[in-house]
Amino acid sequence: MEAGMNLAPLPLAVFVVDADGAVLSWNRAFENLAGYGPDDMRGRKLDAVLALDDGAPLAPALAEVDMTGQLLCAGGHRMSVRLTFAPHSFDTAPGNYSVILLPLPGQGPPRYALLQDFPVAELIETLPCLFYVVDRSGHLLLWNRQVENVLERTGEELPTMNVSEFFDDVERQPVIDKILAAFEHGSSSHEADLVGRHGKRTSFLFNCARTTLGNLPVVFGTGLDISERKKTEQGLRVSERAMYSSVNAILITCCSHGENLIEYVNPAFEQMTGYSLAEIKGRDPRFMRIEGCDMHEHQRIRMALRAKQSVHAVLRNTRRNGEVFWNDLRIDPVVNIDGKVTHFVAVLNDVTQARQYERRLHHLAHHDALTGLANRTLLQERLKIAVESAQQGMPGALAFVDLDNFKHINDTFGHDVGDCVLREIANRLHAGVREHDTVARMGGDEFVLLITEQAGETVVAELLERLRRNLDRPIVVRGKEVIAGASFGVALFPRDGDTVDRVMRAADSAMYHAKTLGKNNVQFYSIGLNEVVRQHLLLEAGLRNAIRNGELALGYQPKVDLRTGHVVGAEALVRWNHPDEGLIGPDRFIPIAEETGLIVPLGDWVIMQACTTLQVLAALGIADFVISVNLSPRQLRQRQFVEHLAATLQHFHIHPSTLELEVTESQLMDNPADALEALAQLKHLGVRLSIDDFGTGYSSLSYLQKFPVDVIKIDRSFLGDIAGEGNAVITRAIIALGHNLKLEVIAEGVETREQLSFLRDHDCDQMQGYYFSPAVPRDILRNMVCSGLRMAV
Ligand SMILES: Nc1nc2c(ncn2[C@@H]2O[C@H](COP(=O)(O)O[C@H]3[C@@H](O)[C@H](n4cnc5c(=O)[nH]c(N)nc54)O[C@@H]3COP(=O)(O)O)[C@@H](O)[C@H]2O)c(=O)[nH]1
């Protein structure tokens, strides 16, 4: 090997020629490759060592950078090689060239043979990275095993390929640019994915540095597998992007130094709170809390942070503009590689709207939509608490409030007016109790008052009496004045019950009692009431079947003409033959029938029975006999009542003038305008009309004049002490009034001869009463009438 240039350490076969092609020096790798001994090369010319494939003459100056040819080896055999001519630029005489030989695949010894003299070969083979040497043409001159592994290629095929082929199309040019940049500037680094023969991709960070082999400029490079780092980076990028784009507000605090200070907030946080990252970075997130608010939640958060644990809380915070919002907050610790909590990530959700919606739903579920009062559910909840508190010495009262005239108001004026009345009642009740008392509407016209922490019955009674009077005041709706009136049933607790159920039942019993006592009054529960209510309920249940079971009977109380003494008519009075209790008077069951609506079928039954009797009498030739029936307010309010009555009369072939309908004076005066209309329709039908209990209902004389009635019936209370000046005056006045209005006058409840004489003397037209006869069955009445029975008058 010729001196002048130390080629020995080079791992590749290299020899140096001058401008004339004379071999000047060579290295051991060349000897190994070509099989020459140390002296065999001396004096040789280039063409004695190499031949081009196409036989063209070979001159260093003409040589291309990269070409293939034949190495003329010792022993005469040839080896296909790749040739690189590298002109010497500065370390030897100008005009010299290094010729670098690389055997083509299948031609030369394996890479290890080339490397064997390379002093750091072993080290390179054990590097935890790729190692390669590339010439300017982009061919690998040298590489370690790792390169072969990654590219899934053998050491023989690698030198035949251009390094750009190891990359994806899109990466090729950037890779080439980077290698050239290293040639140009001395170094470069870049990241790219190597693609193996079978498509396996591995990400590498390549660092290239320019150097020379002999005087051949090459690039030495290492490739560091960064697949894992890339994956992590990609994951981080995704997380970061997700956090940035999240619709949830995210806040990250750093707690490494004992404090908990804001390090990052995402745009959603900025939007939600109005605070920008720049202005709050480094602050404790507690600056958003509201002093004294949601203390319990703050305490839980504090404890969790101290214990480095996750925590979930819902609390109120303030935005930058001072607005309060509900924050559904989740905080989780972040642990570093050493297992130490360094950060907390908080996810904030503005749940203000949901909260408001929830509250609205809760309100709707617990309040009456029409009046805004508590509903049954809320009342039950509060009553439960109140009843429990009562056991601890805080007694209370539960009052059921039932409007007396609501149905009438509703039916007469329509539901709109009814609704206004209910709202006004709600207002009056609400205004009459204390803030912590509860006013509830149970539905319809039923209200309930829950009065808490109220000791005595007297105090409650005074309060309720005040409310009752208040509810009895007129309500003006759309120019109309209506009076709702109310009955109150009251239970005190714990006295009348120690559970919600018992207290409710006691108040309900008291309410029944109030209703049976004629409405518009306040009744307290008493132990005996239960029995009364029980009876009431039993009667109510029995009455439903009474008509169907034929348990009702009609009695007829004769009416006598006070001038002739003849029986000219009768009042039909219903009785109930109860299977267990025997005969029950209408005083007991008519109010129940009225209350439950059973009065309608019951009243129909009475009219049909009365018509049957009239039919019987007519068949006997008694055509002008008049039977009167009592008409309840509810019957009168029935829409189809007149049509229904007309059909009944027609069905029984009854002359309308033989049927008389008795309507009480108070019933008429409750709503005179309506009554007038109803009576006019009945009158149009041809039936007779009578005002019952006259003198007790404060008749307006102007209305009395307008009512198309035929008869007024003096209430029996005026006959009680007819000798007494007061009653006598009234009775005389009623008779005179009736006659002046061209009405017949009848007195009821006549029990004595004295009463009879008085009435006769003062020109009363008819009488009925025990003095002559109580109500009798139809057969007896028929006999009385047919036999021409006459009372001595
Ligand atoms: N809607 C309907 N109401 C009805 C019907 N049947 C009866 N009633 C009403 O029930 C009330 C009580 O009736 P009753 O117990 O039958 O009492 C009547 C007579 O028995 C009683 N009377 C008759 N004579 C005398 C007497 O000399 N003394 C005295 N103390 N009482 C007597 O008076 C009642 C008749 O009253 P009135 O109706 O006012 O004429 C009662 O209000 C009935 O109206 C029905 O079918 N439907």
Could you please describe the fold and organization of this structure?
This is EAL domain-containing protein. The protein has 793 residues and is an alpha+beta fold. The chain has 5 domains: 13-103, 2-Layer Sandwich (Beta-Lactamase); 120-229, PAS domain (Beta-Lactamase), CATH 3.30.450.20; 267-355, PAS domain (Beta-Lactamase), CATH 3.30.450; 371-527, Alpha-Beta Plaits (2-Layer Sandwich); 600-772, TIM Barrel (Alpha-Beta Barrel), CATH 3.20.20.450. The strands form 6 sheets. It has an 8-stranded mixed barrel, surrounded by 4 helices. Strand 10 (201-213) and strand 11 (216-225) form a beta hairpin. 35% of the residues are buried. Bound molecules: ligand LFPHGCPZ.
The 3D shape can be described as rod-shaped
Radius of gyration: 59 Å
Mean pLDDT, rounded to whole units?
88
CATH superfamily membership of the largest domain, which one?
EAL domain
| CATH architecture tag of the largest domain | Alpha-Beta Barrel
